[in-house]
């Protein structure tokens, strides 16, 4: 019941299929419910109003190059060409987005759309679930996938699934097709560290605990192919104190800078996510301080920010000098360094050129409007780019010989080969909606 699964269910139903949703958890949403909800797409109406030049080709080029050209060109092209359709579809379903766009962390360009009123990913999940309920599509909770049933071990049509509910195994027949929208494996330490030994139990994750990748494993058992399994993305989004996902770290990066414990910038704040993660991992205590002014606050609920401040997870001061004093007390950061860093950054912003780290002019805005915030942040395992190999135009899962597996479809983070080595921030929501919708339509055409 994440973005991809809910979108697939709605489209399959509207195409005439009888649909059943199986959910591992006790509640809807999975990672989608706790995500930022930012959706990337070229949107002439919103972007032109802000003086932003963009194009499908630019989104394609940034996505394909941002993943080091390891993404499937056909799938990437399908993603960017159908992004706006996905956004407009969500809006038709009653899910509202802010009238302005921005660049979410790692997006590389201001084409990120956020649900209104700090709604975040939960707003999209709630909106989609309401449409599922409206269509009376049944959702069975606490039904964990334990296998896929195929005519023979690696041949023939996928006939259905085996799930476990309250200790009992149940086999469910699929007349037209099975859509896997089971997410990635960022929360499974064994599985992720098998592909990247650095990502052991000491590394936090932004994922829900149930993002454990069994959908990939069971599909492999039936002959499915996988791609890019060692492409695992870290995100600077885990609180330094709690080691959990959440802080000021999901705000826009235009009126903000990243500094280390010495009070100095060390990377462009609008760089690729993998570049920022790697740069952070070599800093003292593997931590960065997200320093922002009040203009960034608008993308977070004030109540949430106040809660972080009260708990001592986030620091706030009316002046930069006051913030510098707090950071000296908490981390030993030299106040003069932070003040000098902000002063220089503001000068660069005024001139419109970041000579130090190359932050784009579009995202280069001064830090001047108090109150000011500092969020101590660490890298967490965020997104697993690897997964099942699919044909984007059909969303069919491919076997090890490149042949489509009859009756098996997939969408969302369970798939691989779309983002290459590195996913651009805001592209995951687009991925899930675009391919989720397509998977639903395609599966509805399956054999009766």
Structure description:
The protein is globular, with a radius of gyration of 22 Å. It has 14 helices and 18 strands. A hairpin with a 2-residue loop joins strand 6 and strand 7. Helix 4 packs across helix 5 and helix 12 packs across helix 13. The strands form five sheets. Strands 8, 9, 15, 16, 17 and 18 form a six-stranded mixed β-sheet that branches. Strands 10, 11, 12, 13 and 14 form a five-stranded antiparallel β-sheet that branches. It has a three-stranded antiparallel β-sheet with strand order 5-6-7, with helices on one face. The two termini are 24 Å apart. Helices cover 33% and strands 20% of the residues. With 448 residues, it is of the alpha+beta class.
- The total beta strand count reads 18
pLDDT averaged over residues: 94
Low-confidence stretches: none
Compute the number of helices: 14
Q: What's the alpha carbon Rg, rounded to whole Å?
A: 22 Å
Bulk shape: globular
Summarize the biggest pleated sheet: 6 strands, mixed
